[in-house]
Specification:
The complex is a heterotrimer.
Chain A (H helix, E strand, L loop, with lengths): L11 H28 L2 H9 L2 H34 E2 L3 H7 L2 H4 L2 H12 L6 H4 L10 H26 L3 H8 L4 H30 L2 H7 L9 H11 L3 H35 L1
Helix pairs in contact in A: 1-13, 3-8, 3-10, 6-8, 6-11, 8-10, 8-11, 9-10, 10-13, 12-13
Chain B lengths: L1 H14 L7 E9 L3 H19 L2 E9 L1 H9 L6 E3 L3 H9 L18 E10 L19 E2 L7 H15 L6 H13 L8 H9 L6 E5 H11 L4 E4 L4 E4 L3 E3 L1 H7 L2 H12 L1 H9 L3 E2 L2 H6 L9 E2 L1 H5 L2 H9 L4 H9 L1
Parallel strand pairs in B: 1-2, 1-3, 5-6, 8-11
Antiparallel strand pairs in B: 3-9, 4-6, 4-7, 4-8, 4-10
Helix pairs in contact in B: 2-11, 3-4, 5-6, 6-15, 7-8
Chain C lengths: L1 H4 L2 E2 L8 H30 L3 H9 L2 H34 L5 H9 L6 H12 L6 H6 L8 H12 L1 H14 L2 H8 L4 H30 L2 H6 L10 H11 L1 H28 L1 H7 L1
The chains are: A mainly alpha, B alpha/beta, C mainly alpha.
Organism (chain B): Dyella choica
Protein name (chain B): Sulfate ABC transporter substrate-binding protein
Family (chain B): Belongs to the prokaryotic sulfate-binding protein family.
């Protein structure tokens, strides 16, 4: 890497070198091993692993549910972050601290406790059942687990920006007679959109790869509630098939990277848009 | 920086935990439902071995899904002995040269010191009147059984159903396939392991019948009280034979061949058999079996050898990727 | 709902109508109550189902205590490693322009988009017995996978971006004027780092470290693949919970509640520090 260090500060080689060393040994080397193993299959073997109806269905579920979950997270997370930053009320700090729970709670625990709550004999599940709503062992359950693990990403990304955001614009809009809806949609949202997209992308990435919390509540039914990471586990644990598992892992990784690139592009676009407005 | 060095020091001191010469360590890599059994057996063996050889042996037992455990040993988990749910998971280790290919002939009874059978657990009073295999494919009956891909125990469940159908008058593989497909149509939740399935049935209240190993069913009965569940024994079922083996390549490196061998033989001894029976596994030893006869009802059984040949064939034709089980599951949806 | 009655807005746009405010706060509380409080309550309810004596017995089991020790050990190694990484990456990304910088940034974020299960599998492909470095490691008697180093590697990989992500935007926004001023006054590189930069970013650093720590202690998917499940030896707390859930539900939830308490404890530290140095904190936000 050529240093075009315009900065006069020292430590470019040390800091960049160390960063590259860690990334190389912890990320790039394992990643290369994954892609290498996946490539050993050859194109036909690769398609035989990926092109089945079952794999495609699980990928559709993992990505579809994750996109939906991240969208729900974006809406709910915006609400929560806004309220936590802008208003003062009793127990605010305690609620604020709670947001980090899904970060720290082992995903297996989250899965088990969500299942305990939403199973037909669970505290919530038994109340929802008469209404005809089934959560545990359905796609709704998959979605719920993903919403749970993704929410803090949105809230925690938005909070600092909301805290630092100046209210001049809003005030100006107010004095010009804009309604609160207009203020929100015309002034605030465009300003927040880039950050919201960052949070959305993080929640999305997390939800796509999520295993522990989903596996317990999903019911793992073929074509319906079987997520892609579970197929990976099935391949290595019953077939000892690292190549097939690596192929599926590589496809998942590539797809989420594509999504994230699209997200970054969208973000740049919204930023420009916000400035123009 | 100082914290980093401290951390490194901790790391090194942890990995260099030296063992005094007289102490022996043994790692037993096992499958999920044997935890309670080996807790007792390991303690008993420690006392036995101290008396026999004067050595202080510490047995550590690791529990997880059978296939996952075999994969872990393949990837370098230092198992002195493996005690898994089915012979194929040990065959895989033999294929990689970790132990002799004829491992199953090295100990009595196909190297499985205890057995179990596949039975049904139903809710008290048997509201859906489930008596035998055909009742499981009736409309409106929900069956709980884990995924054979991730649970070794569930492969025995699958084979029990298939074998029963084959053994019916006029039974053939075509009819067996139709029967098993109909059965999986009634499965609302496909758990990853046997205990997960038991939890779904017992704690979540899902399903009308749980297909389970007799050992699991008896244990669920003991834990949840006989007022809530009943065990139904089908007209015929499979003998589940969980095998054990010493991993030659690893004991050679550890110098633990003798104690590992003694450990497995201990499982066949009257004391070991008694512990197995107390944990609801059917003992092989007639004297112990007689003592616990009341616990284990008479069952008409068939073995995998009689009905299917060996596990390698079973694995490739039934459970390989794109094999019979996969297509059955696809049809059942 | 006394909380809602006590709503007093001191937020900057103090003109939002009272009704809208109450509705918004109520909405947020419902979301948090539904998504966060209920699962937490469910854990404690299940854990205490058989009474306090059972609960205390379950969390004092030697294997569980071993798991607590292991989890703390892994976090104590992985978090400082990621802290150093985060500082180095931020220094490089914030203060220098170089070719491939965008790629480096993307690479730092990459672990976010790898499924933890795949993370664990990748490590096995490199460090496992049949992996790229497997035979070399075996020849030198080094066990990585199914031992502490593997658990640390998996945790480092999964939590790698957390500190860097907190620091990079802050340091980019703050600029390097102060550091450059220190340089012209004759300070050495390390002096600048410890006396100028570190104090300026310490709150963001703390925030990143705490998040990283929380995530490190709770990591499941990746360590699940590389642990080997030796009770008291390579079972971290989350794995212990998973195994107990196969055997004894209430004990599993008791241990899970321990983990939840550990998290609450970490977050309480953050609160405490934030409260003590509130002014500085906000100035840096």
């Amino acid at each position: 890497m050529t240093a075009m260090a315009r900065s006069v500060l020292p430590g470019f080689r040390l800091s960049t070198g160390y960063t590259l060393l860690v990334l190389g040994s912890c990320v790039l080397l394992p990643l290369a091993a994954l892609l290498w193993t996946a490539c050993e299959l050859g194109p036909e073997g690769w398609w035989a692993q990926i092109g089945t109806r079952r794999v495609l269905a699980s990928l559709r579920l993992s990505f579809g549910a994750a996109l939906l979950a991240a969208t729900i997270d974006a809406v709910l997370g915006l609400l929560v972050a806004w309220v936590l930053v802008r208003y003062r009320f009793a127990l605010r700090r305690q609620f604020d601290a709670l947001v980090d729970l899904p970060f720290a709670l082992p995903t297996a625990v989250a899965g088990i406790s969500l299942t305990a709550l939403y199973a037909p004999n669970g505290w919530l599940g038994s109340r929802l059942l008469p209404l005809g709503i089934e959560v545990a062992y359905t796609r709704v359950g998959v979605l719920l687990a993903m919403v749970f693990v993704g929410l803090p990403f949105v809230v925690r990304t938005l909070q600092p920006v909301l805290e630092s955001m100046e209210s001049d614009l809003e005030e100006a809009a107010y004095t010009l007679g804009a309604t609160s809806f207009q203020r929100f949609f015309r002034v605030l949202l465009p300003l927040l959109l880039p950050t919201l997209l960052t949070g959305y992308a993080l929640a999305l990435a997390r939800a796509i790869g999520e295993y522990g919390s989903v596996i317990f509540i999903a019911g793992n039914r073929l074509f319906r509630t079987e997520i892609a990471p579970y197929l990976i586990v099935q391949k290595i644990d019953s077939q000892y098939d690292y190549r097939g598992a690596a192929a599926l892992g590589a496809v998942m990784l590539a797809s989420s990277l594509l999504l994230l690139v699209a997200m970054a592009w969208l973000q740049r676009w919204t930023r420009r848009w916000a400035v123009v407005r | 920086m100082r914290r980093l060095l401290l951390a490194l020091a901790v790391l090194l001191s942890l990995s260099a935990g030296n063992v005094p010469a007289q102490d022996v360590k043994l790692l037993n890599v096992s499958y999920d439902p044997t935890r309670e059994y080996f807790q007792d057996a390991d303690t008993a063996f420690k006392a036995y071995w101290a008396q026999q050889s004067g050595q202080d042996v510490t047995v550590t037992t690791s529990n997880a899904g059978s296939g996952k455990q075999a994969r872990a040993v393949l990837d370098g988990l230092q198992a002195d002995v493996v005690t898994l749910a089915l012979a194929y998971d040990i065959d895989v280790l033999a294929d990689k040269g970790l132990l002799a290919r004829d491992w199953q002939a090295r100990l009595p009874n196909n190297s499985s010191p205890y057995t179990s059978t596949v039975v049904f657990l139903v809710r008290k009073g048997n509201p859906k009147q489930i008596r035998d295999w055909p009742d499981l494919i009736r409309a409106g009956v929900q069956v709980i059984t884990p995924n054979p891909k991730t649970s070794g125990g569930a492969r025995w469940n699958f084979l029990a159903a298939w074998g029963w159908a084959l053994r019916q008058p006029g039974g053939n593989s075509h009819k067996a396939r139709a029967f098993v497909t109909a059965l999986y149509k009634n499965v609302p939740v496909l758990d990853t392991g046997a205990r997960g399935a038991t939890n779904t049935f017992v704690r979540r209240g899902i399903g009308d019948v749980l297909i389970a190993w007799e050992s699991e069913a008896l244990m669920a009965l003991q834990e949840s009280g006989k007022d809530n569940y009943e065990i139904i024994v089908p007209s015929s079922t499979i003998v589940a034979e969980p095998p054990v083996a010493v991993v030659d390549a690893i004991v050679a490196r550890h110098g633990t061949a003798r104690v590992a061998q003694a450990y497995l033989q201990f499982l066949y001894s009257p004391q070991g058999q008694e512990i197995a029976a107390r944990h609801f596994f059917r003992p092989r030893l007639a004297s112990v079996a007689g003592k616990y006869a009341a616990q284990f009802p008479a069952v008409k059984t068939f073995t995998i050898g009689e009905q299917f040949g060996d596990w390698r064939n079973v694995q490739t034709s039934y459970f390989a990727d794109g094999g019979l089980f996969d297509s059955i599951l696809e049809e059942a949806q | 709902m006394a909380a809602v009655a006590a709503v007093v807005s001191i937020g900057q746009p103090a003109r939002t109508t009272h009704v809208a405010r109450v509705v918004l706060v109520l909405g947020a509380l419902v979301v948090l109550g539904w998504l966060m409080v209920l699962p937490l309550l469910a854990i404690f309810a299940e854990a205490l189902q058989h009474g306090l004596a059972f609960y205390l017995h379950a969390i004092r089991e030697p294997d569980t205590l071993g798991a607590v020790r292991l989890t703390l050990t892994v976090a104590a190694i992985a978090v400082p490693l990621n802290m150093v990484f985060g500082l180095a990456a931020a220094w490089s990304m914030a203060y220098f322009e170089f070719r491939g910088k965008a790629w480096l940034g993307a690479l730092i974020d990459l672990p976010f988009s790898i499924s933890p299960v795949v993370c664990g599998m990748m490590l096995i492909l490199v460090y496992g017995k049949n992996g790229w470095l497997g035979s070399w490691l075996e020849a030198h008697g080094l066990q990585v996978i199914f031992a502490l180093p593997g658990l640390v590697l998996a945790t480092v990989l999964v939590t790698l971006p957390y500190v860097a992500r907190e620091l990079i935007p802050l340091m980019q926004a703050q600029g390097s004027d102060q550091e450059e001023a220190a340089l012209t006054l004759g300070a050495s590189g390390w002096q600048i780092f410890f006396r100028v930069t570190l104090p300026r970013v310490r709150w963001a650093l703390l925030q990143g470290v705490l998040l990283c720590n929380a995530r490190a202690m709770g990591e499941f998917g990746a360590v699940y693949v590389v642990s080997g499940h030796l009770r008291g030896i390579t079972n971290t707390l989350p794995l212990q919970v998973d195994q107990l859930s196969q055997e004894n539900f209430s004990a599993a939830f008791a241990v899970a509640s321990l983990l939840a308490l550990l998290t609450v404890f970490t977050l309480a530290i953050k609160r405490l520090v934030k409260w003590r140095h509130g002014g500085e904190w906000n100035a840096n936000d």
